[in-house]
Amino acid sequence: MAHRELLARHRSVMPNWLALYYEQPIEIASAHGRRVTDREGRTYLDFFAGILTNAIGYDVAEISDAIRSQLDTGVLHSSTLYLIKSQVELAEKIAELSGIPDAKVFFTNSGTEANETALMLATQYRRSEQVLALRNSYHGRAFATVAITGIRGWSASALSPIKVSWVHGGYRYRSPFRELSDADYIKACVADLREVIETTTAGDVACMIVEPIQGVGGFTTPPDGLFGEFKKVLDEYGILLVSDEVQTGWGRTGEHFWGIQAHDVVPDAITFAKGLGNGLAIGGVVARANLTDCLRANSISTFGGNPLATTGALAALNYLLEHDLQANAGRLGSRLLDGLRAVAAAQPVVGDVRGKGLMIALELVGPDGEPNPAAAVALLEETRDRGLLVGKGGLYGNVIRLAPPMTLTQAEAEEALEILAQSIEAVAKEVQQR
């Protein structure tokens, strides 16, 4: 009853386009560890973590205590017109972790802002409004980031401050090159990149922006090394490479701290957000100093990198590093992938199981392999009914996304696998009966 009443109030004052999960949406009222409890008292194992944002989990003492210590100072905000010690300390740590030589950091409030900033820097540095982006990508909801979003369902406007050219590579499962080996797939995508530059641009492109694993696009995972080969072509033209690590950063892929490292390349800039703040609003760009310093006009960020957000984020990052959550993501991610692939082998409704670490996707398909968004919606509901919260995405809305907090335990992984197996079986039966 509480949810129904709040939903009616929500719909009366919030935009129609503001998406909600579930036929009967829920409010998260409390949480601890990897479990959340809704307003009506039902508890769930959370496998989407506020869209990968609650990376450390809920009610973590070390992070909560750091936030309380900042609250106790009475200073929640001062603006970037003043020195902020926690901001400097966090920037120092991120610059070192980035692997980018001579790096500097600018903080924002979100991933959208981070990507907008990266585009502004790249276009100013290169004196060009031309940008390369991947098909099936998602980079945010602001003016320029909508322009570089290659998913029709999330591209709200055709108007744009930049000129975008689209490149193959991120979404292998439905790519025209999908039957190729890894090496030949990379060659085909590199050839496409070169052709796009030569035929759709004036050559003086500002940057290429890529997600090492496409998030909203359905956790699509290209072969390792693809973006390293892309960088060789980009360097021929002086084009910058921006890695959007809003979802892949902070060790979530298990293999590496940044997703782009699987491609044996150091980008010119990395954008980040989500998991860094463990629920606090923070994002940013880390890039070569000559790129970050290229602006010739005054600029600040009123709220970006504020004392509260950077204090909490610094505590979250320290916790992540001290507890080696990257290794945990790799270990439990492998178990989840193996378990889900075993389930999928017996259930044709699952066309693909993919991902790395604790960033895993199930692509739901029809009898001829066509996208099956109805099955994804059904699986979303089935898992919730069994006490598991998951995400959804994909170009066709037919992908279930799994991204639990990186503090996930072995027992919780096994619990989720059992729920997913039961839910997939139920959806498969429902599909067969139609």
TrEMBL record:
Enzyme class: transferase
InterPro entries, per database record: Aminotrans_3, PyrdxlP-dep_Trfase, PyrdxlP-dep_Trfase_major, PyrdxlP-dep_Trfase_small
Lineage: Bacteria, Bacillati, Actinomycetota, Actinomycetes, Micromonosporales
Keywords, sorted A to Z: Aminotransferase, Pyridoxal phosphate, Transferase
Tagged with keyword Transcription regulation: no
Domain of life: Bacteria
Subunit structure comment from the entry: Homotetramer.
GO molecular function, one term: transaminase activity
Cofactor: pyridoxal 5'-phosphate
Pfam families: Aminotran_3 (PF00202)
Record EC number: 2.6.1.44
SUPFAM superfamilies: PLP-dependent transferases
Family of the protein in this entry: Belongs to the class-III pyridoxal-phosphate-dependent aminotransferase family.
Protein name, as recorded: alanine--glyoxylate transaminase
